[in-house]
Every structure is written in structure tokens, then in C-alpha cells.
């Protein structure tokens, strides 16, 4: 916690104006926008700077070049989204993109400069018709996160709870009150092994994505669908949960856990090839006229096809036609990490595989980031705003974080700080089971394996049925643990992951077509009318 903040007593209620759960770009930028006039609690599962945002390499898409336009950026987003982007949300985000970047610049984010009239270097990524990606070399997320983290730590109105994990939301209806709204959350202090009650007039879910539901992912270990699961249990709708973006190029190496090879490499001329024993053939032109610059879903499926066709463990991304100086200037992080693992990308291609990367669906929100539950907001990857449709356009996600944190902050600041009723403390009387941890570990491994096998890049009805059968078995076992034993961070995450997996499978079963990131062998055609897949807890989905 911030040294200037008074520590909360585990097990006793602690009240704030706003509770932000999650410390990525969405959560931190929102906290900073609020803190000058609101008392903010910022809860994060690990350290303040440990989030998916910090792992982002490529950059942030925005209309900054005079040769570019809002219409062009909107059109590219629509194309990638395969007919499911919400027009109002897409235009809202793109029209506010310049202001979002300016806010980050004003905060001191060190974007890569050049001698252009803009003063910053712009790159291009797959699916974009213009150079519109502002970046900080190939470690944009780290640059943004470090800048904001320093300011969050210094702000006297932000109380940071590191190594704390939200257990569940507090709602008025669960307390028997007539007007339902979110009142805060129960939060586990991991170090003390105690659950505390944090009350707040407004609560924001900024918990990131769901990548750890899959065996292979580019996401950090914190991406366990916590916000999605908590919002669902509190009665909020979910939309488009079946659309999981698999990044085409995750580094394939036994010692390179979740290391992403940025989209920007293909934007700067990287070529995907088969291994040398198959002639090193470039294969993307056989799958799409845009070749390596096709949207991510197409590239990921093409790699998956070639790997299965030839029985390969990986394919290769070739940058050897670029000079060492170019690679050092634009991709120093990737160059250095590959060298650590014995791969010199100036002389040899990079082994890559697809990996679960980004969830396009999530908690349904409006343009002010409000959910179905009064007092509860969702921002970042946790939210479904309608921007990404059936497939996220590269580098639109960090932009979405900044734009919607601004709109959420404006809505919260315009609302009164409502008084809180007496909030109940967590029941700490439950026992610890000696076998709990090992069973949780085994259940987690089973979940991630069958989700990869049955609910991955290519799906079938039979695969989805098998996954759902296993999910239901796990849910019964986890519910028994949760009802009878003291909660641990692993149990909380497993509970959330299994629920998130259930929502992904149910959404996939409802889509009787192939569209964007959802490809079904049983329904290979795309239907004429694009419809969202909306799930509602009260309809017992």
C-alpha cells in the first residue's frame, strides 16, 4: 500500500469513494483521472506494474497523421470486426484517439520520436491501411505502465492494495436492500490470508482478460477472468465471449513463457515461412491476398492449418532481410530476448506458434463504461464495449483502455458519492482442507488443456459438448470447495476461470456460423446478418 495511506484492517470494512480492481492501463489511468477529487482504492493481484498492459509491445492505434482519417480508422476496425463492431462505440473511440494519446504524452510517456511534423514515429500493423501506431520502440506497454505507476504511487488520494485479490462484489440485493447497486467488494489479503471488506460508492472492474483459461497464452498469470466472473455472479450480461483472439506469433521455445513476437514485425516486412526441411516456403499468400498483413484471425488459422497439415510444432517468422541496425532500433526487446535464448533474429528466423491473446467479449457496458448493475463499471479487456466486434484490430486495445477510462471517470465525477450502509464482514470460520491446493492445481491443468483442445482456433459441436461436460464436473467440485473451505488466491482464480470457460463455450454453442475469431467446422459459412451473442444470468445461461 502507499506509505501515505492508512492501512485497512483485514476483515473490517474500509470505505472509499471509488474502488478500482486491476492495475493495468485502464485501471491506473482511471485512478489518476479521479484521484484529484475522489479517494480511490486500487486493488491488484500482484505488484502495481504487473499486468497485460505492461506486456504490450506494438503500440497504440490513433489518428495522428494528417494523411490518415477517422473514417479510415473506423473502416479498418469494421473490416477486422467482421460485421460485429458497434458503430457508435467504434466512432466514439476513434474520434477520441488523439485526445487519449495527448493525455499520455502530457503524463510523460516516452513515445519514440522522429523528425516528422508529428514528432513521433508511427508504424503500421496487420489490418491497418495507414501508419497510425504510436509506440515506444517495441516495449510500449512497459513505457506507459512505468510512467503511470510512478504517478499512482505518488498520489496521496490513491491507496494501493498490492498482492490482494477480489473475491466477489458486494451488492445491495445480497444484503436485502430494496435498491440494488454495487457497494464494493470482498478482497483477500494474500499475505495475511484474510478477507477484507472494501466499500465504495463506485466500483470499477479493470481486471484484464481470460487468457489463462487456455494452455498456451501470451497473457500474464493474472489473466484469469476475474472481472467477467464477478460481474456475471452479480447479474450483469456478457456478450461475444466466443471471440478469443489467438495471436499468430508467440515465441516457441521451452524457456520463453508467454513471450509475444509483436504484430509490428510483420508490419515492417516480416515473412512467415515453413521450416527449411520443407523448403522454407512463404505460405501466407496462399491463404489471403493481404499475406502477412491480413487480420490476426486469418493469420492464426493459416499457421494452425500449416502446422496440422505438415505435423509441425511451429512455423518461422523471417526478419533476416532487414539490417541489424534496423532491428536494433525498432525491436530491441525482441532482439535481446531472442539472443538470450540463442536465436539471432538478424541471421535466422524466429520460431512462432499461435497463442490465446485477447478476449473480444466481456461485461456489457455503455459509452460511459457503465454495466447493468448501478455503481459498477468495467473498462479495458474485461469490458464489452462493441469496439472489437468479432476480431480486435491490432493496437486498438490500449486505445480503448484510455478512452473508456476517461469516459468512466467523467461519469463517476458527475455523480454524487453515495453513502454506504453497514457492510458485512467475511465469514472466516471455514476450515482449510489439506488436499485443497493439489486438487486445485490439477483441476486448473485439466481445464486449460481441454479448453485448448476443444475450444481453440478451430471448433466443432462435438468438441464444445465435450468441453462443457468437463466444465460442469469441475464446477461441482469447485462449488463444494468454495462453500466449505477458506478461500485462497488459487481457488478464487480457478473458480473464476471455470465460470469464464463456461461462458465462452455457451456463447460458442449459440453461434451457428463462422465469423471473425470463431471458426466452426460444423458451420463454416458466415450468416448474412451479424448478431451479437448475449448471455444473461437471469435466464440461466
Number of strands: 18
- Structure classification: alpha/beta
Q: Per CATH, which architecture of the largest domain?
A: 3-Layer(bba) Sandwich
Strand content: 15-25%
- Could you tell me how far the N terminus lies from the C terminus, measured between alpha carbons in angstroms? 39 Å
| Mean pLDDT, all residues | 91
- For this structure, the CATH topology of the largest domain is FAD/NAD(P)-binding domain
> What is the percent of helical residues?
25-40%
Descriptors for this entry?
alpha/beta; FAD/NAD(P)-binding domain; Flavocytochrome C3, Chain A, domain 1; Methane Monooxygenase Hydroxylase, Chain G, domain 1; 3 domains; 15 helices; globular
Structure write-up:
This protein is of the alpha/beta class and 541 residues long. The protein has helices at 25-34, 52-55, 70-80, 87-95, 97-107, 140-154, 226-233, 263-267, 296-310, 324-330, 332-340, 396-414, 436-454, 461-484, 489-510, and strands spanning 13-21, 40-43, 60-61, 122-123, 133-134, 158-161, 164-171, 182-189, 194-205, 238-239, 244-251, 271-273, 315-318, 350-359, 362-364, 376-378, 383-384, 534-535. Strands 1, 2, 6, 7, 8, 9 and 16 form a 7-stranded mixed β-sheet that branches. Helix 1 packs parallel to helix 12 and helix 7 (226-233) packs across helix 15. The chain is globular. Mean pLDDT is 91; it is low at 1-12.
Question: How would you summarize this macromolecular structure in one to three sentences?
Answer:
The protein is of the alpha/beta class and 541 residues long.
Amino acid at each position: 500500500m502507499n506509505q501515505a495511506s492508512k492501512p485497512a484492517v483485514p476483515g473490517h470494512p474500509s470505505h472509499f469513494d471509488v474502488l478500482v480492481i486491476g492495475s493495468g492501463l485502464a485501471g491506473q489511468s482511471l485512478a489518476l483521472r479521479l484521484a484529484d477529487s475522489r479517494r480511490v482504492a486500487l486493488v491488484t493481484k500482484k505488484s502495481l506494474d504487473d499486468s497485460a498492459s505492461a506486456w504490450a509491445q506494438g503500440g497504440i492505434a490513433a489518428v495522428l497523421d494528417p494523411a490518415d482519417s477517422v473514417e479510415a480508422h473506423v473502416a479498418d476496425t469494421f473490416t477486422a470486426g467482421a460485421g460485429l463492431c458497434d458503430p457508435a462505440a467504434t466512432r466514439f473511440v476513434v474520434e477520441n484517439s488523439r485526445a487519449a494519446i495527448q493525455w499520455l504524452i502530457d503524463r510523460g510517456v516516452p513515445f519514440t520520436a522522429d523528425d516528422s511534423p508529428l514528432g513521433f514515429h508511427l508504424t503500421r500493423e496487420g489490418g491497418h491501411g495507414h501508419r497510425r501506431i504510436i509506440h515506444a520502440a517495441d516495449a510500449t506497454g512497459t513505457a506507459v505502465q512505468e510512467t503511470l505507476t510512478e504517478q499512482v504511487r505518488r498520489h496521496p488520494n490513491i491507496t494501493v492494495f498490492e498482492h490482494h485479490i477480489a473475491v466477489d462484489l458486494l451488492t445491495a440485493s445480497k444484503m436485502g436492500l430494496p435498491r440494488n447497486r454495487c457497494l464494493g467488494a470482498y478482497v483477500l489479503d494474500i499475505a495475511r490470508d484474510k478477507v477484507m471488506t472494501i466499500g465504495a460508492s463506485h466500483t470499477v472492474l479493470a481486471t484484464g482478460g481470460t487468457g489463462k483459461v487456455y494452455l498456451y497464452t501470451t497473457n500474464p498469470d493474472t489473466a484469469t477472468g476475474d472481472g467477467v466472473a464477478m460481474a456475471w455472479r452479480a447479474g450483469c450480461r456478457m456478450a461475444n465471449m466466443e471471440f478469443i483472439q489467438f495471436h499468430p506469433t508467440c515465441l516457441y521455445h521451452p524457456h520463453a513463457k508467454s513471450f509475444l513476437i509483436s504484430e509490428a514485425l510483420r508490419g515492417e516486412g516480416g515473412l512467415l515461412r515453413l521450416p527449411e526441411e520443407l523448403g522454407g516456403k512463404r505460405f501466407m499468400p496462399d491463404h489471403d491476398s493481404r499475406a502477412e498483413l491480413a487480420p490476426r484471425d486469418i493469420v492464426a488459422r493459416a499457421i494452425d492449418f500449416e502446422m496440422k497439415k505438415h505435423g509441425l510444432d511451429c512455423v518461422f517468422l523471417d526478419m533476416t532481410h532487414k539490417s541489424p541496425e534496423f532491428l536494433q532500433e525498432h525491436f530491441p526487446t525482441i532482439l535481446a530476448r531472442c539472443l538470450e535464448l540463442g536465436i539471432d533474429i538478424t541471421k535466422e528466423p524466429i520460431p512462432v506458434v499461435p497463442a490465446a491473446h485477447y478476449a473480444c467479449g466481456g461485461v456489457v457496458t455503455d459509452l460511459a463504461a457503465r454495466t447493468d448493475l448501478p455503481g459498477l463499471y468495467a473498462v479495458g479487456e474485461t469490458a464489452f464495449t462493441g469496439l472489437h466486434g468479432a476480431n480486435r484490430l491490432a493496437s486498438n486495445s490500449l486505445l480503448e483502455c484510455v478512452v473508456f477510462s476517461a469516459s468512466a471517470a467523467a461519469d463517476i465525477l458527475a455523480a454524487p458519492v453515495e453513502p454506504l450502509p453497514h457492510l458485512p464482514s467475511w465469514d472466516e470460520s471455514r476450515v482449510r482442507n489439506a488436499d485443497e491446493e493439489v486438487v486445485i492445481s490439477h483441476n486448473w491443468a485439466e481445464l486449460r488443456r481441454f479448453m485448448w483442445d476443444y475450444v481453440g482456433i478451430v471448433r466443432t459441436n462435438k468438441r464444445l459438448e465435450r468441453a462443457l461436460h468437463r466444465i460442469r464436473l469441475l464446477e461441482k467440485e469447485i462449488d463444494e470447495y468454495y462453500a466449505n473451505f477458506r478461500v485462497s488466491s488459487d481457488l478464487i482464480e480457478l473458480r473464476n476461470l471455470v465460470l469464464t470457460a463456461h461462458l465462452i463455450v455457451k456463447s460458442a454453442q449459440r453461434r451457428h456460423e463462422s465469423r471473425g475469431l470463431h471458426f466452426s467446422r460444423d458451420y463454416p459459412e458466415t450468416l448474412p446478418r451479424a448478431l451479437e451473442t448475449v448471455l444473461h444470468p437471469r435466464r440461466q445461461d
